Amino acid sequence: MSNKIYVGNLPYSVTDSSLKDNFAEFGEVSSAKVMMDRDTGRSKGFGFVEMASADVAQAAIKGLNGMSVDGRQIIVNLARPREESRNSGGYGDNGFRASGRSDVGYGAGGHGGGRY
């Protein structure tokens, strides 16, 4: 069982340290991170907490799911593994790979175009 927790519907006022403090009531917190928008620097309204053990993570989920924080009812559950998008291109395990789409980029429709 996993010990990584997803926390959703967070108020924008929640910080990494306040998130960690709330979960520390249930046991040792390995890490706590509120996800931030890179353009605005504002919270995206969700984060992740990693607990020291799966038992402690389950206790935190049961204790905090549905709790009201600054007027918002937070969602707390086990984090799902990140899904890798297919054919997205980019840098991966095998090095850089261009998108798998044939209608994007050079060669299919002129300079930088695609099919129109």
From TrEMBL:
Residues 106-116 have a biased composition (Gly residues). Transmembrane segments: none annotated. The keyword RNA-binding applies. Residues 3-81 form the RRM domain. Keywords: RNA-binding. This is RNA recognition motif-containing protein. Residues 80-116 are annotated as: Disordered. Pfam families: RRM_1. It comes from the Bacteria. InterPro entries: Nucleotide-bd_a/b_plait_sf, RBD_domain_sf, RRM2_NsCP33-like, RRM_dom, SLIRP/GR-RBP-like.
